[in-house]
Every structure is written in structure tokens, then in C-alpha cells.
Prior knowledge:
By secondary structure, the protein is mainly β. The chain has strands at residues 2-5, 14-19, 24-28, 34-38, 41-45, 50-55, 61-63, 71-75. It has one domain. The protein contains no helices and 8 strands. The termini are close together.
Amino acid sequence: MYGFDLIRGDQAATVGAIPGGGWLIDCADDQGNTWTTPILTWTVHADGTATPITTDRDGVTGDATEGLSGRGEVCC
């Protein structure tokens, strides 16, 4: 399992997107709730970073790292 620490700052421009490729993200919020969700796509930014994007049951997409308490575990 691979992990990442969230670093917030100004996000560089998005320059591309690649398929999620079966990756999953295990998340926890500040209230201690946990969940696992598939990554729909990765947006690739001009500074070389990538952001995992997920979708909810209504088809609304969003940054999978928003609302996390500071650490997410991403695995394939």
C-alpha cells in the first residue's frame, strides 16, 4: 500500500488526465469516518503533481483528497 501526505497550496494548471486504472483510495475524515472509493481519473498538473478524482452516485466528480484529515492511503 502506498501513502501520501496532503500538501495544500496553489494548484498548478491541469495539463492532462489519465484513467484511474483500478486504483482505490482509503479515506478518513476528522470525525473518524472511513471509506474506500475507486479513483475515476488522475488529473496531471503542470508542476508534475497528480490529483485523484472520484465521483459520487450522482456522477459529480471531485478531488478525492478534499476533506481528508491529513493522510490518504492509495492502493491498486
